[in-house]
Amino acid sequence: MIKVINRIKEFTKTTWFRYTLVLFLGIFLGEMIFRLCAKMPIFSYPTLRIFISTLLLSSFFGYLLSFLKKIPARILLGLIVFATNFYAYLQLGFNNFLGVYMSFGTSSQFGAVVDYIKDFLHSIKLVYYTCYIPAILVIVYLVLFEKKLYNNDRTNATKEEKQYKFYLKTINLVGFALFLIVMYYLTISLKFMQNDLQLTSNKKLIVNPSVPSTAIQEFGTTLFCLDDIKITLFPKDESLAYERKNNSGNNSGGSHINPDYKRVIDDTAWEKVIANEKRSTYNTLNNYFISQKITDKNEYTGLFKGKNVIFIMMESVGDEMINEELFPNFYKMYSEGWHWENNFSPRNACATGNNEMSGMLSLYTINNNCTANYYRNNQYFESIFGIYNDAGYRTTSMHDYTEAYYYRSTIHRNMGSGKYYGVRDLGISYQSEYVNWASDDDFMNKAVDILTNTDDERPFMTWLTTVSGHQPYNVSSILGDKYLKEFSNLKYSTENKRYLSKIKVTDDGLGTLMRKLEEKGILENTVIVMYGDHYPYGLRKSAVKQMIDRNLDDYEIERVPFVIYTPGMEAKTFSEYTSYINILPTLANLFDLNYDPRLYMGTDLLSSDYESRVVFADGSWKNERAYYNAANGRIKNYTDNPYSSEEIKAINETVSYKMKMSSLAIKNNYFKYLKTQLDKYKEEEKQEPVAVVSE
């Protein structure tokens, strides 16, 4: 026993032990500070996982550093601890600023943080800087104490003794590492250590950290970083299988459905595609989509048939714009048209580009990358442009800025836009410096000219993405200062007033749009659809709270307007929870377009099949009854009618499949494949390519 104690004492004096201990304390303490700042529980199974993984990594790096000379070893040790602390700090800041945790898949958005570095630093909470405490303590230790404790065990030793110590250390490391790996595996495998309501299991998440918020919650920032590097260098999608269901949407509805509302689609060609497809990925997608429910027509079907339509995605417009006195043009359409009071625009890796993509495709973008840019060469016959093209519309899309952030000229063309107009094509004034943006008033003025100054008598469909409301708000700018005096009587911060000034310009543009359409005599024959791309995340939550007096937790801060307006319509307020994912199928039904509802992750909001629910980028969801937090797998009930565990699991399964199948379809350019295959078999049957037979 005495010999064992002496050996332990001897081991604690070795360089390897000290380096391991210092690394462990520096990294683990940083992880705990991160969890406190992120309001994650400390006394939990994830903390045990982080303890084990940190000890394993510290042992490995301590082993390597023990073979180096003392100066470079100490420098590297300090850098490792600093790097892990800095990464935790960045994750807190990134999530606070953009609403998502960063990954290497979101690297294209690092530029956004660099461009808005002042805003980024301004948004950082002081408590986040406590992440550096472990690094500071480690550096102080290395400078003041490590020199006195430096062990001579690598000097004054023979070659044989050094070799023996090398073998001994290596054997000890391997044995210790194997023990820790087994322990770690148990923490992600034993049932009592798992969250039964978690959207993705820990076993799957450790292989592919596809949901950063959950992965960081369960594994910590350091392991997530290493896992993220691994999946970036060696991409690996989660293997998906889908068993074909027999309850095809062709049989949806029932005796309560008016026979005239029945939507029937001929699947002859699609069945041939499935029968002859040998590739498992494509047939997984085929079987998933073909077995989804076909929503029936309803009393709203064709309400706007044949009218022109203008979709407007408004930059950084939140519920602050619902103000008759400050924004009369928007409020006119909001109050006289239809609006959904529980509409959200969930942020993700690229809030504007990805949310625009989701609005155009009714697909969930990939959570941990800038999907719109990454997959810009994909083609989508079923896009919002595609179905209006098929209906004989003249389609266009426009944006009053350059392609500095998103490759819209390519993205929109591949979605089927007849012509894309960027700010240079529009011929309006703009500033290249990010502080100043083009005027949405100029934008709308030019857009109406393009839409109406033509001999083409076909109805038009256009998508307009505005820019005036864009951050920054904490510095002087042309549009930010334009209406400052008008808001001088408001007891708001200057940055809030600059924000309001910017979206006042957007409101001016909406006024110009309606006025010019009326002058052209086409306003009454035009439908205007508007939604905010995201709330003004350039503002702190406390600043937003100053303008919107409600609780902003549980993703409430991401509530934005969604309005459908045409003159003379009956004003209505809808209470269903929704997001941009449902815009396409809703408008497709209102215009009675030929479309296949199964190809979309959203649902017609006016259909009896619609389930009130909004899904956020990480798989969290909420409605009138509850809020489910995917990061920690917890449910918060809002009513006396709580969800059962079985109901939560069923909803999670639906949400998970929708997001994973959407991701798989985008990654494999599925809709280009599907169109090609359907055209092939329809040609054999001498039918029109990709025609949807509807009655």
Low confidence ranges: 251-255, 691-695
**Residue share in helices?**
40-55%
Provide the CATH superfamily of the largest domain: Alkaline Phosphatase, subunit A
- Which CATH class of the largest domain is shown? Alpha Beta
Secondary-structure-derived class = alpha/beta
Per DSSP E runs of 2 or more residues, the count of β-strands stands at 12
Number of domains: 2
Determine the number of helices (DSSP H or I, runs of at least 4 residues): 27
- Largest sheet entry: 8 strands, mixed
Rg computed from alpha carbons, rounded to a whole number of angstroms = 29 Å
User: What would you say the CATH architecture of the largest domain is?
Assistant: 3-Layer(aba) Sandwich
Fraction in beta strands? 5-15%
- By CATH, the topology of the largest domain is Alkaline Phosphatase, subunit A
Give the CA-based shape: globular
What average pLDDT do the residues reach? 90
Q: Terminal Cα separation, in Å?
A: 87 Å
Strand order across the biggest sheet?
4-3-5-1-6-7-2-8
